[in-house]
Amino acid sequence: MEKAYRYRFYPTAEQENLLRRTMGCTRLVYNKALAYRTKSWYERQERVGYGETSSMLTNWKKEEELDFLNDVSCVPLQQGLRHLQAAFTNFFAGRAKYPNFKKKHNGGSAEFTKSAFRWKNGQVFLAKCNEPLPIRWSKQIPAGCTPSTITVKLTPAGLWFASILVDDYTIKLLPKSDKAIGLDVGITSLIATSDGDKITNSKPFKQLRKKLKRKQKALARKQKGSNNREKARKRVAKIHAQITDVRKDFLHKLTTRLVRENQTIVVEDLAIKNMVKNHKLALAISDASWGELIRQLSYKCEWYRRDLIKIDRWFPSSKRCGNCGHIVEKLSLNIREWECSTCGTNHDRDINAAKNILAAGLAVSVCGATVRPEESKSRKAGAMKQKPN
Known about the structure:
alpha+beta; about 45% helix
């Protein structure tokens, strides 16, 4: 399994100068290629691919005003063009928006493949750099694992990180278990489980919102282009980084525990991008980070050979009585407990939904029912066409 290990490092003055120039050149090449591809399409309806932009990069290096591109490694520049090609591929496939231009104040990154770094005695030597990166090894890379890609990143807060990608063969499969669990995500409680437990949402943004608001006000008062404004911008960026770290730490601990304790995990296939269009709930949904929760469950289940099942997002998990199967016509969000009019069972909304999600997920695993709504609609349409008049 491919696994990335992320470390913080503190570059020397010489290393920082080289890395900043490398990121600046990578950003310049990316933006120039993006501008050319956009102009070619709007003016001549011509699609420009990676091959053409790679040839353009060779010509740019020969220009006198862009001669500084030869002072840095060519690998991060080529990788930037590959990332641009991937961005356009995702855009035309409908998976992402149109690529944006990269900005300096957002930090930057540079990706080094095997030809642009040396891995020697557990140390990283980047291209055109004689000294190893002073990485703080918070966790050692397993013995025998050789890095295939190293990505150096500068955050908006001014912190340096190195992400080392290795093929980790030391991941051990967890012993099989008969336990299955259904998860219903929420806002007040991040998840409710079919076992009857509720995990409280940490809400890191809400905790630091007042502090962030105060720092943002101070930033707005600073004159644009001044050193004080840059200092204030970094203070705001550090608070955002703190919010992200708290959220990810909480989610990593939660998802690891869920994967270790359960063989089968069932969740809903939610359309989160559509849900955040509700302006009253957008902030709370974003702070809960449901997408990151599902993403972590996905790759951890793949690592340890667990089963993650996603059920149809249109399945009425909250409205269905888990005892008799009766479905209520309407159930507003402010109703957290309700009583079934058919069998009289009193339900906690979230716990009942988690139990229904588990039951639906087990049905999916047994009989192979559809998971994604578009599949359900297509199959339903096909069945209607085959139905005799």
